[in-house]
Amino acid sequence: xxxxxxxxxxxxxxxxxxxxxxxxxxxxxxxxxxxxxxxxxxxxxxxxxxxxxxxxxxxxxxxxxxxxxxxxxxxxxxxxxxxxxxxxxxxxxxxxxxxxxxxxxxxxxxxxxxxxxxxxxxxxxxxxxxxxxxxxxxxxxxxxxxx
Length: 147
Description:
The chain has a five-stranded mixed β-sheet with strand order 3-2-1-4-5. The chain starts with 8 loop residues before the first strand and ends with a helix. The chain contains four helices and five strands; from the N terminus they run βββαβααβα. By secondary structure, the chain is α/β, with parallel strands linked by helices.
């Protein structure tokens, strides 16, 4: 039996989280773009009183959950995802370069890994804050809504 070749899809997620105070009112924002650079989804969620690092993780988790809704489940393993964010800590923890020590972040890290494992390839890239302005705006909108 010949099986059809599954086409690999590529998505880029720009994610950002923040809190006003640490901890303080927190928000998560992310934008999902297809391989052509078209925005296909976004996230903007108020998180309550949380730390900045919690919010950074939550932004990626929410974006991956949104991507799971956009991509048929039988195509998840044929999907490449690049996550770009300005949180060097989260990027290095997800790459395994830094250990996750804080108990709450360990839970966030585990949630993100569970979501990430559903996709074929997942890469984390640290970008300067200026290159993450769309996600930053969505996180700030979420914090404004919660204020």
